[in-house]
Amino acid sequence: MQNRKIIVVDDNQDQRFVLKGLLTDIGCEVIGEGKSGLEAVELLQKLSPDAILMDVKLPGMDGIEAAMAINKLKPTPVILLTAKKDEETIKRAVEAGIMAYLVKPIREEDLLPAIELAISRFREFQVVRKENIDLRESIEARKTIERAKGLLMEKEGLSESDAFSRIQKISMDRRRPMKEIAEILITALEGRK
After folding, report:
1. For the domain 132-191, what is the CATH code?
2. Which residue ranges of the chain lie beneath pLDDT 70?
3. Are 38 and 54 in contact (CB under 8 A)?
C-alpha cells in the first residue's frame, strides 16, 4: 500500500483536525482541506487526490451533490462521512456513485480499509466503464461498416466479401479506421441515384 493522497471536507474544523490526525497515523497524506461541497469541487480541480473523505452535511452543496459534481468533472473515489445512517441518505449515496460510507465517530481501524476498498472498487468500476464504452463504439463501427458494405453490394453489384475487402483495402491504403472509410462511402453512395 502506498502513501494515499486524501482531501478532507467537513464543515467542522475539529472534525477535520481529528480526521487529519487519523489519516496521518495510518500513513496517508492530507493534500487539501475544505469546509463545503463547493470547496471540495474546487480542491479536486487543483489537486489529484487518490480519494476524498467528505461529510454529508455541508453548507450550500451537500456532500452527495458535491460527489455527483466531482464524478462529472474528474471522477474520484468519494468516502462519505455521516453522523447517522438513514435509508434516504444511503440511497442518494448509492445513486451518486459513492464508493464507501463511514458513520461517525470514525475509528482509525475502519479508515484504511474503507479508503482501500473505495479506491479498489472505483478502479474496477472505471475498467468496466471503459470496456462498456469500447464495446459500444465497436458495435457502432460494426453497424456503420455493415451499412457501407450493403450500399456497395447494392450500388456496385459486389458480393459481401468483395464489399468488405474494398472497405478494408481503402482503410489500409489510407491508414484510416474502417469506420471512417465506411462513413465516407455511405455519404458518397447515398448521394448517388
Report:
1. 1.10.10.10
2. 1-2, 192-193
3. no
- CA dist 127 and 119 (Å) reads 12
Query: What's the CATH fold of domain 5-106?
Result: Rossmann fold (3.40.50)
Please say whether the beta carbons of 96 and 62 come within 8 A.
Answer: no
Task: Give residue 162's identity as a one-letter amino acid code.
Answer: D
Question: What is the rounded CA–CA span in Å between residue 113 and residue 109?
Answer: 8
Angstrom distance (rounded) from CA 54 to CA 46: 17
Domain boundaries, the chain: 5-106, 132-191
Question: 89-143: per-residue pLDDT in tens?
Answer: 888 888 888 888 888 888 889 898 999 999 999 999 889 989 999 999 999 999 9
Q: What is the pTM of this model?
A: 0.72
The yes-or-no answer to whether 5-106 and 132-191 have a common fold is no
